[in-house]
Write a structure and sequence with these properties.
About 45% of the residues lie in helices and about 20% in strands. It is built from 13 helices and ten strands. Helix 4 packs across helix 12.
Length: about 325
């Protein structure tokens, strides 16, 4: 088999893999569980990556020795010191070719902008804002350190506000009733006790309910969606400022479930907030899997210059592939 390039996109709940030949033709794709070491631990990440690489290589009928370059775009790779945790995992995979580690947000950036110059806003299970110029790369630091948190922040904010409603601080709307009911509680007091004592853990699956209630005019749900959308827009404002993109046209890729849900309120608040300071920003919602951005990142590393044919072959096929 000829030489090929491997791309990995590992998020909080899913990992995607793709192998292409050196002309950008897709040979195989695969998917399995998450690869964020902060959520599932180092051993689980190593297991999932080992399994998915074996599977995608088998589907492509190639050996690991045929892989000449690869990029691992992993959630949870936020700091330079994280290489001490993740490099041993990558080294254990026995890939003879060169391997790069990047945060998974940059896979989405390259998937939407093949040259990798611009900004990306991730609002999925979690959140991340990032950007690149030809010489500089920046990204936000984490939900606990001033970053928008995607669906996780949406649910946490909703819980905070319905707790305030229970205290009589804000109005008791349908959000106050329906969040407890969604996890089996008709009595909100019993629900809050279960949350406090760790018997119930709310997760990102509640995001569609919050969006639905906001669409129906629930004032507290509207406040939740507005706050989270605004935070993600402000994060991108900061990225644009750090990269000196202010005042110039800049491309922005939007990715993740909150950006792709087509929620009118979330989209309107995000765009209005961002355009207020960066009217020249050009926004697009990512319409292919971010794993193809991992391939493009690896291709930029492997080739002195990625050919238009490689980009065209990959991007045209990517729109037809479901992983």
């Amino acid at each position: 088999m000829g030489k090929c390039i491997l791309g990995i996109d590992g998020g909080g709940t899913k990992t995607h893999a793709c192998i292409v030949d050196l002309d950008g033709n897709i040979l195989a794709t695969a998917a399995n569980g998450g690869a964020n070491w902060e959520r599932i631990g180092v051993e689980a990440v190593q297991k999932n990556l080992t399994e998915i690489i074996e599977r995608v290589c088998a589907k492509a009928s190639i050996a690991k020795a045929d892989i000449v370059d690869s990029t691992f775009a992993l959630a949870g790779f936020d700091w330079e010191e994280d290489k001490q945790i993740l490099n041993p995992i990558v080294n254990s995979l026995d890939l003879d070719g060169r391997c790069q580690l990047i945060n998974d947000s940059f896979a989405a950036l390259f998937a939407g902008i093949p040259q990798g110059i611009g900004c990306v806003s991730i609002a999925g299970t979690g959140g991340k804002s990032a950007g690149r110029t030809a010489s500089k790369t920046v990204q936000t630091m984490g939900m606990e350190l001033g970053e928008g948190g995607g669906a996780g922040q949406l649910v946490d904010t909703a819980l905070d506000l319905i707790a305030r409603a229970h205290h009589g601080i804000v109005e008791k709307t349908q959000l106050y009733k329906q969040i407890p009911q969604s996890v089996g509680f008709d009595n909100p007091a019993d629900f809050f006790a279960a949350v406090a004592r760790g018997r119930v853990a709310l997760d990102e699956s509640l995001a569609p309910l919050i969006f639905k209630l906001a669409d129906e005019g629930d004032c507290v749900a509207i406040e939740v969606v507005t706050k989270v959308a605004s935070q993600h827009a402000l994060d991108i404002q900061g990225i644009i400022k750090q990269l000196d993109f202010a005042g110039t046209p800049v491309e922005l890729i939007r990715a993740g479930g909150l950006h792709t849900a087509a929620n009118v309120l979330f989209d309107r608040v995000f765009e209005k907030t961002l355009k207020a300071s960066s009217p020249g920003v050009i926004m697009r919602v990512l319409d292919v899997s971010p794993v193809f951005g991992s391939i493009l990142h690896a291709a930029h590393h492997h080739f002195k210059e990625v050919s238009p044919e490689f980009i065209s072959n990959l991007t045209s096929a990517a729109k037809k592939v479901e992983i």
